[in-house]
Structure formats: structure tokens, C-alpha cells
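Q: Okay, next protein. This is Protein NO VEIN C-terminal domain-containing protein from Nocardioides salarius. I've checked the sequence twice, so it should be correct. Can you predict the 3D structure?
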Amino acid sequence: MTRGIWGVGRVTGSVEPEDQDGYFSDLGYWLDRDARVAVEMFVPVDIPLFGEAVSAEDIKAAGIDDLEVFRSPQGSNPSWVSKDQLERLEALLPDWTDEESDETVTVSDYGAGFGSPAKNAVVEAIAMAEVIRVYGTDWKYKEVSADKVGWDITFTHKKTGEVVRAEVKGVSGTQPIVLLTANEIRAAENQAGWYLAVVTSALNKPRITEYSADQALDAAKPYVFKAHLPDA
């Protein structure tokens, strides 16, 4: 295999305990069991690969011979790269897109999320089904996403009549990072029984974490602003 740069990507989450949900062992990322067990922490990344590597020889030929990985091949992993080195490296790399800065934000009748509408639909459907399953047969439920009321499912307890308004968010990764629409924020502020159910690892091993309205509002930060501008 050619020694060099095989891909460029980004960090997709925070440092976490290694394999806390069995995610990496299930996907078989580790070929050596002892090496996997020895790792205590990991950082999730998304690194699309190039068709062929930018070789170490090409990098050195371009005058970039002071990289840490060249000076200490058996040293730190990952190796450190300065801003100046990165600027010179970018001229050698194939065209690539920083998906985080250009990431699609999908806003629909069913809420808001990162990624394509097709993938979001699958993740959200799994998340909705998982929340309904967890509530079980003691609760009646009605899906109200399309009604634009600010939550997705109204649960009513069959015996007590208690009403719970669940806003459901599905996430394919392990981090509970979601988008809330203005309508959902209003419902969190004004509707009794509103809470946020975030289903992480929806495509692998769905895991539900519940947040109160106050918790959701405290964590919410402006991300996208809609501006109605006058005609030129």
C-alpha cells in the first residue's frame, strides 16, 4: 500500500469511552482483539477515502518535508500538522468537501435535522417506532407530526388519562445533537407534558434519552435564522 494521505475528513463527535455501546465491536473495526481492548477512549470521525493516495514522495517533492510523521514515523498517532503545513498540503489534495460546513439542513413538516431528506426519513421512522415500542400497551398514542403542533406523538395513559407530548429526534450517531424548529421551541415553552426524546445510534442499536422541556430549552442555541428580505 502506498504510504501517504489516503483521505480527508472531520471529527464527528466528542471523545467517548471506547465501545460503550458495543458499536465498534459489532462493526469489526479491530482485527486484533488485544489491541481493541487496550484502547480506552475514541473520537468518532468521518474520513472519505481518495481513489489513490497522495504519496509521501509527492509531499516531500512539493517541499513539505518537515511534517511530524516524517520526522518521527513511529511517534504520536495522530501526528501534529501546523497551519502552514496544512495550507501547503491542501494544494496537493484532490477536491473534497467539508461536509460539516456545507451540511444539508432539512426542515420539513416532521421537524429539522442534518443530512439528506431520504436518510432523515429513515432515521426518524426508526426513532418514532422505538419510542412507541418503549411506551408499550398501557398508552394510547397518536402521531401528530404533520399537524405542526410542535411535537410528534401524543401519548395518553389508558387508566390515568395522563397526557405526554413527545418530540422525537433520531440521530444516526452516538451524540444527542439535534435541531429544534421555532414551532417545537414554542411548544416546549407553553405545552404541559412536552418532552424531548432523542434516539441515538438509530440505525444500529437505538438508545433513547429523555429531556424535559427545561433541559431542551437550556441547551438550545440559535443555528439558522430565517430572514424575509424586501425585494431589491
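A: Here is a summary of the prediction. Residues 15 and 43 are 5 Å apart (CA to CA). The longest helix spans residues 117-135.
Q: Noted. On to the next one.
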